[in-house]
Write a structure and sequence with these properties.
Helix content is 32%, strand content 26%. The chain is of the alpha+beta class and 353 residues long.
């Protein structure tokens, strides 16, 4: 068990931590930790083969809109002689089917891996998530019989992280793909279904688009409704550009959408011109009519008109609506695989301790 008093000290003593000179653990200190978080993310991404271009503004925006997470209790910082070399954060969601999922994010600089630190941090995350699950049972937000799982999302390039999950009893339960269309030439034709029009939503319609997206994804695997905090953060992000979206309307009702975006920071860092054709969804009454294909094709043209030379998206490998075949049919190819790892949370054991 981790031994600490949340009301007395920012230092956390982990009884199961490896014996490394100068190693210590502490809590979140607020905004002064944002540059340290960014340094650890930047220092990890090359070794992990992950592409991201975070800024301090991105970190601050994310932490201003956290949900189901109390950073003062749910974060752990790893230090060597007072220098931050890693951190973790946990949060949770309740799926539409009542399943409770406890997520853990963890970043550790490559030079400090394979020394037992990652295992200690994972154990801390699991203990904290188990406490949260018990608190939710006690307050009636979930029941003692609700399925509860620890959950982790790992790219196929994150070798050390995948090894850590497998070593600690996690099983692969689902896969997702990153896909790229390497050029924007020879985009196929795909006419709109009759009776629908495509237009840019007005600011007072952003909520309607958001709600339609939540509705469209509700029958997808692992769905949980996106909360208000995410809606607010979405509109503050630099990539938020409704003029790039292709939203289909049936009168004043949203039929489907592709909410494309361009990350200028990412394109500069990786020396490319890529647009993302993401949040591809169609509400149930409008499916099987060719709408998703038409909106995706229109979105490819939209990012091309902005000077982009390639497009990318993410997809659940087992999407029941045939999304993978659709994306392949318009020229997207799989470039990376992600694995979702899970392990049951033994809440009854925790409650009796």
């Amino acid at each position: 068990m981790c031994a600490f008093d949340i009301n007395k000290s920012e230092r956390i003593e982990l009884e199961y931590a490896p014996e490394i000179p100068g190693l210590s653990f502490r809590r979140f200190r607020g905004e002064p930790d944002y540059p340290k978080i960014l340094r650890v993310i930047d220092g990890s991404k090359e070794a992990d083969g992950t592409e991201r271009s975070d800024t301090l503004e991105d970190i601050a925006r994310n932490y201003a809109h956290l949900h189901n997470c109390d950073p003062e209790r749910d974060m752990l910082f790893v230090e060597i002689n007072g220098e931050t070399v890693g951190y973790s954060r946990v949060f949770w969601e309740i799926q539409a089917d009542g399943t409770w999922l406890g997520f853990q994010l963890c970043f550790l600089l490559p030079e400090w891996r394979r020394k037992g630190i990652g295992t200690a941090v994972m154990r801390f995350c699991e203990e904290r998530l188990r406490e949260i699950a018990l608190e939710l049972i006690e307050t009636g937000k979930i029941t003692a019989s609700s399925p509860c799982f620890y959950d982790g999302f790992v790219a196929d390039t994150e070798i050390a992280r995948e090894s850590l999950f497998r070593k600690n009893g996690y099983d692969a339960v689902r896969y997702a793909f990153n896909m790229v269309r390497p050029d924007l030439e020879n985009i196929p034709e795909a006419p709109m279904p009759p009776g629908l029009i495509v237009r840019t939503p007005q600011p007072n319609e952003y909520r309607k688009v958001w709600d339609a997206s939540n509705e469209a994804f509700q029958d997808h695997w692992g769905f949980f409704p996106m909360p208000e905090e995410e809606f607010l953060k979405w509109q503050e992000e630099p990539i938020f550009d409704p003029t790039l979206w292709r939203v289909a309307w049936d009168g004043d009702q949203v039929a489907g959408m592709v909410c494309s975006f361009i990350s200028q920071n990412e394109n500069v860092e990786y020396n490319r011109k890529r647009g993302y054709t993401e949040n591809i969804c169609v509400r149930r009454p409008y499916r099987r009519k060719g709408l998703a294909r038409s909106l995706l094709v229109q979105s490819l043209h939209a990012v091309k008109e902005r000077g982009m030379e390639e497009a990318a998206l993410g997809v659940d490998a087992e999407n029941l609506n045939g999304a993978l075949k659709l994306y392949e049919s318009v020229g997207f190819k799989v470039v990376k695989t992600h694995t979702i790892f899970r392990k049951p949370v033994i809440v009854n054991t925790a409650k009796s301790e």
